[in-house]
């Protein structure tokens, strides 16, 4: 099948080449006046399209890239389409220093940057925080923005490694769109629809949708997804635009925790072998609605106001994480069920202004933002009916140990097990912030950026518990019931309300000796909220993290060659740890009593190169080095070990890609592309820690799983004929085997060699 697809690409290429040659030899051209007018119109549309899509940016303030003392990388929709990206991890292969940390049982992909987990706070969609517990759809993306380093000034409580902003496509006042069908290895099928146009002179629309059904190189594992992204643009006046956007993802998937590890060894199980119960299942539902208003008072002052509503649900049931008992692969599979719900309400108001004082230019950006979220986390207990009709809790699916090397030991299936909702943890959170930053041009070659943010957030948590007494049922046909479940608890456990306040300053200097060269340095401060109390029973203050960054940005040859080099240091000198002593000087044994006494340091360099040497030819390259370690720990039981690298942070990453569409001659409209991606050595599992043996002696508990480096290479070939494009792709063509490792479970092998084809029709 794959060979046929590649052959079809070459065949279509040959037909197109023959047609071009025939026209040339006979001085025959289809480009009459009508075609020329259409081409001119398309060029005008392209220009308007580029202007129209700047509704949302991770920078928010309107700063030009050369004026921003911070590293910013943008991966455009054209590159996403050319590389036939299916998941966000495919897109991120183009970003240096950003990498997949884990696959979390197939439910989500976790991304890391500069040694820090982007987690739930650092991934945004159209400028608003998005719940990170899903696999985002990429077909609607106009671009992916990566704002490296500290972004606390504009976004508040975010990890210092950087933020990722997913920007979706917006309506156009020109009719157009495309139909596409993507198919590939392991029964992958995905029809895609994208169409746009005006409803009248003041209202435009766009709709992007897809259906995806796919199996996997892993036995049993499969996925079914439905996605819709409608949007409307209202040109209220020449100075006011209103953009409404909707986004809905329906995702059914089979949880897959991969293979297992014992100690420091990942067990070598055949890559296709699925080790979970076949009835395991997972569902993700994610919906959002955004509204954005942009108003220009005049050429110097602009107002932006955004509101967002997001509804998220994810639930899973089946066998859970795999932890073999020995190198021979013996284990008993635990049962697991969970449900998470979250509603997020966000608001943003910003004002951008340009003015002068004492002959110096100012670019001011100031505003307020807020967020309210309601989240419920459900935990479950599984139970088994005894012969007398009573019930007892169970933790494992298997009555006897299985062996992951012997499929016959887990071939039989008992089906889903009875369970009840044991606890519900309800969290209510609020966060608000006020910020202001000013870019001051004190000389035509020197600019200074100064800003300050004040953030306030509160988290209120309650835990509802079920009574553990289960009812006796003598009738075997009756379903098991409980006296109470967690949602009937009228006296929940209320945790102390956690309130965090912090100031986040930022200061930067930009020196531009030439218009094409920008040298910058900056300092920024961010904060990390902490749970627990100090030795005086006061809530812990947030940890303040300092970040220093310096670099150079260049734009040469009329922006055909861009080279950016950045060096950084991120210093968390207030890492929270268990306090060594209580307020009376006695040795502390309460793990909830903590102190800001530890320290981590992340340092590294990043290099980006983008070149456009020829028309239709683009080259992207990147390299990053990161070293993040514990530099100060308490040495107490449970603390990390000084000098250890943090888990899941590779030392080196690199990427190199090109895409070329032939513009003239025999091979006109043939496209070729490739991308190579390198991920360096890293540590899986957990970091080592201090522990005590049975004799009470302190020792270092070895919990790290070394994971080797690897390189993958993808290649594409395609051909465009009139409005039809066929692209074929081979991914991981060297069939490299490696793993993404989350803690010491969910050790998922990366996908082997696969093939894909994408047929598009533009209208």
Q: Give the rounded overall mean pLDDT.
A: 87
Helical residue percent? under 10%
Strand content: over 45%
Low-confidence spans: pLDDT under 50, at least 5 residues? 1-52, 472-483
How can the largest sheet be summarized? Answer: 22 strands, antiparallel, barrel
Radius of gyration, Cα only, in angstroms?
Answer: 28 Å
How many helix segments? 5
The beta-strand count equals: 42
Distance between the termini: 28 Å
Give me the secondary-structure category: mainly beta
Shape: globular
Description:
The chain has 763 residues and is mostly beta strands. The protein has 5 helices and 42 strands. The chain has a 22-stranded antiparallel barrel. A 5-stranded mixed sheet has the order 1-7-8-5-6. It is globular, with a radius of gyration of 28 Å.
Give a quick set of tags describing it.
5 helices; single chain; about 775 residues; mainly beta; 22-stranded antiparallel barrel; about 10% helix; five-stranded mixed sheet
């Amino acid at each position: 099948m794959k060979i046929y697809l590649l052959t079809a690409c070459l065949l279509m290429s040959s037909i197109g080449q023959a047609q071009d040659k025939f026209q040339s030899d006979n001085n025959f051209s289809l480009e009459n006046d009508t075609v020329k007018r259409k081409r001119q119109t398309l060029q005008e549309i392209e220009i308007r399209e580029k202007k129209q899509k700047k509704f949302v940016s991770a920078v928010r303030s309107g700063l030009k890239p050369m004026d921003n003392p911070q590293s910013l990388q943008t991966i455009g929709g054209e590159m996403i389409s050319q590389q036939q990206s299916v998941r966000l991890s495919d897109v991120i292969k183009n970003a240096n220093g950003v990498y997949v940390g884990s696959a979390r049982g197939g439910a989500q992909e976790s991304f890391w940057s500069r040694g820090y987990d982007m987690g739930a706070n650092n991934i945004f969609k159209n400028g608003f925080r998005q719940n990170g517990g899903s696999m985002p759809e990429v077909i609607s993306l106009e671009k992916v923005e990566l704002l490296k380093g500290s972004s606390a000034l504009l976004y508040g409580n975010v990890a210092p490694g950087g933020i990722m902003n997913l920007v979706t496509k917006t309506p156009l006042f020109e009719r157009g769109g495309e139909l596409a069908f993507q198919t590939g290895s392991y029964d992958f099928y995905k029809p895609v629809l994208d169409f746009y146009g005006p409803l009248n002179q003041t209202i435009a629309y766009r709709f992007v949708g897809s259906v995806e059904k796919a199996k996997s190189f892993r036995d049993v594992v499969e996925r079914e997804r439905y996605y819709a992204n409608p949007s409307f643009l209202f040109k209220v006046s020449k100075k006011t635009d209103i953009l409404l956007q909707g986004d809905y993802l329906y995702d059914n998937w089979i949880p897959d925790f991969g293979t297992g590890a014992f100690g420091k060894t990942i067990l070598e199980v055949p890559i296709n072998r699925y080790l979970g119960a076949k009835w395991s299942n997972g569902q993700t539902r994610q919906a959002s609605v955004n509204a954005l208003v942009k108003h220009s008072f005049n050429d110097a002052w602009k107002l932006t106001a955004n509101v967002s509503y997001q509804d998220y649900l994810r639930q899973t049931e089946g066998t859970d994480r795999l932890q073999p008992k020995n190198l021979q692969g013996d284990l008993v599979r635990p049962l697991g069920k969970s449900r998470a719900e979250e509603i997020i309400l966000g608001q943003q108001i910003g004002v951008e202004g340009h003015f002068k004082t004492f002959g110096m230019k100012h670019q001011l950006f100031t505003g307020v933002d807020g967020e309210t979220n309601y989240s419920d986390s459900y935990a479950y207990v599984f139970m088994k009916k005894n012969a007398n009709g009573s019930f007892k809790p169970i933790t494992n699916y298997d009555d006897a140990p299985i062996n992951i090397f012997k499929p016959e030991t887990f071939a039989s299936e008992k089906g889903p097990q009875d369970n009840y909702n044991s606890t519900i943890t309800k969290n209510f959170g609020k966060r608000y912030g006020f910020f202001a930053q000013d870019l001051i041009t004190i000389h035509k070659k020197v600019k200074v950026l100064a800003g300050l943010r004040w953030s306030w957030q509160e988290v209120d948590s309650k835990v509802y518990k079920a009574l553990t007494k289960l009812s006796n049922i003598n009738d075997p046909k009756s379903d098991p019931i409980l006296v109470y479940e967690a949602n009937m608890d009228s006296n929940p456990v209320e945790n102390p309300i956690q309130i965090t306040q912090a100031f986040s300053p930022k200061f930067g200097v930009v020196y531009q000796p030439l218009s094409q060269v920008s040298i910058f340095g900056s300092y920024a401060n961010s904060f990390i909220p902490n749970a627990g109390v100090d030795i005086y029973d006061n809530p812990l203050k947030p940890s303040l993290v300092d970040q220093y960054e310096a670099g150079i940005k260049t734009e040469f040859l009329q922006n055909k060659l861009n080279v950016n080099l950045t060096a950084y240091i991120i210093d968390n000198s207030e890492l929270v740890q268990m306090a060594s002593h209580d307020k009376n000087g006695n040795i502390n044994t309460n793990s909830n009593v903590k102190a800001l006494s530890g320290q981590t340091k992340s340092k590294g360099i990043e290099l980006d190169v983008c070149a456009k040497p020829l028309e239709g030819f683009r080259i992207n390259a990147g390299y990053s080095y990161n070293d993040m370690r514990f530099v100060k720990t308490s040495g107490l039981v449970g603390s990390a070990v000084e000098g250890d690298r943090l888990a899941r942070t590779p030392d080196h990453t690199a990427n190199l890609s090109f895409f070329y569409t032939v513009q003239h001659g025999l091979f006109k409209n043939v496209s070729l592309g490739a991308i190579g991606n390198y991920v360096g050595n890293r540590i899986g599992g957990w970091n080592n820690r201090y522990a005590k043996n049975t004799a009470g002696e302190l020792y270092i508990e070895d919990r790290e799983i070394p994971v080797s480096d690897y390189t993958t290479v993808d290649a594409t070939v395609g051909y465009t004929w009139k409005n039809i494009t066929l692209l074929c792709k081979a991914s991981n063509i060297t069939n490299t085997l490696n793993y993404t490792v989350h803690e010491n479970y969910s050790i998922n092998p990366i996908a082997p060699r696969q093939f894909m084809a994408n047929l598009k029709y533009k209208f």
